[in-house]
Write a structure and sequence with these properties.
The chain is mostly helical. It has helices at residues 2-19, 31-40, 42-76, 78-90, 96-107, 111-135, 139-147, 152-189, 195-204, 208-236. It is built from ten helices and no strands.
Length: 248
Amino acid sequence: MIAVLVLLGVLGAWEAIVRAGAVDELLLPAPTQVAQALWDDRSLLAPDLWTTTYEVVLGLALAIATGAALALAMHLSPGVRRALHPLVIGSQAVPVPVIAPLVILALGFGLAPKVLLVALVCFFPVTINLHDGLRDSDPDARRLLRSLQATRWQQVRLVEGPGALPAAFTGVKIAAAVAVIGAVFAEWAGSEAGLGHALLIANGQLETARAFAATLLLFLLAVGLYGAFALLERRLVDWTPRTGPGEP
């Protein structure tokens, strides 16, 4: 409730400042103008929202699959961990805006480069968090399974995998929140549709309200994806303690 009140206060102040003429509407449209653009340009923005959502979902799925495979391989094999861990970390030093045009040139203007760039942005938090979760699983439970002569795969399936789920979901939620960044950079590098493309067109036409509307849709997409994985986590990871409001 407090967050809603704060948001309403910010929007009210924003509206008042623009309406008072303190800021040029061409630079900063009022919230009501953004809402009007969202409705008036719905026929343009709705297909772009679908395009970006499709790219993000596919890229996120690829990042989760790749990240899970890498994390498991690094967990099971010290040699693989020594070989891949520096590369996984180093991948985040590569600026996406710089490599996006190169990826577009190599793979064309279709879906593939967008999915690849989204996956590149997303796979690091998935891989690192899952790997840390597997490594930090309950040592007593692992010792018990070893005393029962459980196989390495049984240890992963019965103890390490379930124990790593909270950390894995943390990584996935972070990835979901930043996935739209990869999609936007990819669309800026070369595309004919998507919210990133809509932003470029709106800015070029000085349609600032439409640009803000597209940005709002990107924000809502990121929040929606994060919320979906948070809900899935609550369904699947029901054994971890949760601290409610007012609890220590």
